């Protein structure tokens, strides 16, 4: 597989700057699709400077990851297998993965993870454009949310926040660093967090879509195992938004 890829597949590392947040994208794909992807990304991040490095094989990309991280990986469907899923997807829980497929519906199957996107080779530009909001919002989560907690100034990267929970007049931030709380309005927080890929799934919950692994009728399951209530009203709004994107 890798020998074949050496002749006709390419892996690129693109570097964008977004409000001082560095976004790295690794692409492992055939030449034709890579050109389409690069052109679409250049439009998606047109307000920023970017550059790239070239890799020939998945193994070279894996080696490079020991020294630098990536926010977005774009792979040909041939690289969707248990071994590479472990090396790339499992070991990079903050990253977005986009698989370019002959039949995206078939390859996706029952995969409901919000940070995994499947697009068709024949409609690369169209599908990337349709998912532009998701791609950009989740890829800039290195940016930080700042607030005071118990008299201490706290800077939390958005990617470190799993979800926000409103209990009475306090909002609790469930994060990789523990739980923080702040007396604030949930609607105001929704306006701040929505551009970074957070979804209001319930009047009392705002979740980081990057960590949603499955959607159920009355709840969403998070990567860390939490089950968050999913209200009927918010379900209608979110499903309507997804249909519009499609």
User: What oligomeric state do these chains adopt?
Assistant: single chain
What order do the strands of the largest sheet run in, or round the barrel if closed? 3-1-2-4-5-6
- Tally of individual helices: 9
CATH topology of the largest domain: Rossmann fold
What general form does the structure show? globular
Descriptive account of the structure:
With 246 residues, the chain is α+β, with helices and mostly antiparallel strands. It has two domains: 2-139, 3-Layer(aba) Sandwich (Rossmann fold); 144-245, Beta Barrel (OB fold (Dihydrolipoamide Acetyltransferase, E2P)). The protein has helices at 2-8, 31-44, 58-64, 82-90, 104-108, 124-130, 132-139, 186-193, 232-245, and strands at 9-18, 21-30, 50-55, 72-76, 96-101, 116-120, 144-149, 152-157, 161-167, 170-175, 178-183, 198-202, 205-208, 212-215, 219-222, 227-229. The strands form four sheets. It has a six-stranded mixed sheet. Helix 2 (31-44) runs parallel beside helix 6 (124-130). The longest helix is centred in the N-terminal third of the chain and has 14 residues, at 31-44. The two termini are 32 Å apart. Mean pLDDT is 86; it is low at 1-8.
């Amino acid at each position: 597989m890798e020998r074949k890829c050496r002749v006709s597949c390419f892996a690129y590392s693109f570097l964008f700057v977004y409000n001082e947040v560095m976004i790295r994208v690794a692409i492992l794909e055939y030449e034709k699709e890579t050109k389409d992807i690069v052109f679409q990304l250049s439009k998606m991040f047109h307000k920023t400077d970017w550059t790239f490095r070239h890799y020939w094989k998945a193994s070279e990309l894996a080696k490079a990851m020991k020294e630098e991280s990536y926010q977005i990986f774009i792979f040909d469907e041939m690289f969707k297998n248990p071994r590479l899923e472990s090396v790339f997807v499992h070991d990079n829980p903050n990253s977005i993965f986009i698989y370019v497929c002959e039949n995206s519906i078939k390859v996706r199957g029952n995969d409901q993870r919000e940070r995994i996107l499947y697009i068709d080779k024949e409609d690369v530009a169209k599908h990337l454009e349709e998912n532009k909001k998701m791609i950009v919002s989740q890829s800039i989560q290195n940016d930080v949310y700042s607030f005071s907690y118990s008299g201490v100034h706290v800077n939390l990267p958005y990617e470190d926040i799993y979800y926000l929970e409103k209990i009475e007049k306090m909002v609790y931030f469930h994060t990789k660093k523990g739980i923080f709380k702040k007396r604030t309005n949930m609607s105001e927080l929704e306006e701040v967090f929505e551009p970074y890929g957070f979804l209001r799934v319930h009047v009392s919950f705002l979740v980081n879509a990057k960590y949603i692994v499955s959607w159920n009728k009355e709840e969403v399951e998070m990567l860390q195992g939490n089950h968050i209530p999913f209200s009927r009203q918010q379900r209608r709004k979110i499903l309507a938004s997804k249909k519009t994107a499609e």
